[in-house]
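User: two proteins, same treatment. go.

Assistant:
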Amino acid sequence: MRGRYPKKFIFAAIIIGVAILCALLAPWLAPCDPVRADLSARLIPPFFQKGGNWDHLLGTDHIGRDILSRIIYGARVSLAVGFVSTFVGFIIGGLLGLLSGYFGGKADSVITKMMDIQLSFPFILFAIFVVGVLGPNLINVIIICGVTRWVMFARVIRGEVLSIREKEFIEAARGIGCSTPRILVRHVFPNIISSVLVLATLNMGTIIVLESTLSFLGVGVQPPTPSWGNMLNDGKAYMVQAWWITALPGIAIMLVVLSANMIGDTLSDLANPYTKQLMGSFEK
């Protein structure tokens, strides 16, 4: 491995960095108002295609909204849902996973049954139920994605804690009278943080896809708020006539999700000494 990080990690970090900058600086980077319609400028192709112009670099949609501006603003929704839902899932799943793995017994049995019930419940059905009760908006999408992804954190953390709680340093901490919260915070959690970081990066890509799916189905972020998912929905009837309406936000989703997964894979390799050593031997 040349340098400290592989090229795929650097590439992925650049893509995620650009997406974050677009989300933070959208009002200054977007060339047009993302929700302003202009029927006189509808279905203009990208600048590199015949009929395109430099006023709308990536073209316009069926009601004349600028695609580039909507993609830039759509990054706000996708990244907000990705980061916040991952955090919510980690808080819920991390706490339950720690309790289940460390205490075992009835607590482990109850929490494990909760995991099984959650995994048996179809995601789309749960999303439609929540939206039907609370209504479709950004906050509810975050709740849906966060609540449905806690199981992944809980299962992984539970498995890690089951192994760590039998280590000698945990027994020593108990022996000198450390309280259970102190043992969990000072001795158990630092030893699972690498797995949590890997899981969080991989989870973020999955959540971005879930948010796009919900918005595409009409039960996620609602128009006119720009979202990559509802941009796909807007363009599904124009895929032959105006391919850019669906293809360009689809490419944005693919790049961000792929980059998040690549970062997760790299962190997983670096966190595993055997894998890291093996990679190094191939590079020599």
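Protein 2:
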Amino acid sequence: MHDVKNIKLKLINEGLHGKLSENEGEYNSPWNIATSFTINMSFTALEISTMLVAYEEEHSTGMDITAVSEEIFRFTNGYPFLVSRICQFINSSGSKWTAEGVQNAVKIVAAEKSVLKDDIFKNMENNNAIYNFMYGLLMGSSNKRVSIFDPIVERCAMFGFIEVDSIGRAGVANKVFEMAMIDYFISKENSAGAVADRVCSGMHNQPIY
């Protein structure tokens, strides 16, 4: 995300693309793109299995390719970086190429620091409305329908945080993002609670005049 968002500006600076129009800059998009981008960049479970077939031919792990590919897809929804990172972790850590091995890799990938997650959290912190929307979606009790024409919903979808189905139900784009965001929100609440406790403790210790 960090690299992709600068592509158009780079082309402009190199004289390979015209300057942004007034409308293109209207929402200060991190992608600097105003027109719809409809190409689905995610992998399907079948495409993941095709990559695993090539890996299996070289390494002969004995994995159940269908089961492993479907488990990877279940957690990533085909998000390319996450698919690659989970496979990389299993390969480098010596974990087993099983559904359980995928689940263990997901826990590590969801918890580890990365440029991708830095961008996710930065974009939430830079916009209170986005932060509140995602917090409500993950930590709230409501399950109301949304409109993709809502600027906040549109922005969250543009960032790849959410997907909205045909009847207006919003959900986090994949389970890895969901796990990482929930941990982030809980950590923020714990930190805020600790600060509040210290403030209250300091007030109680103040002399009464």
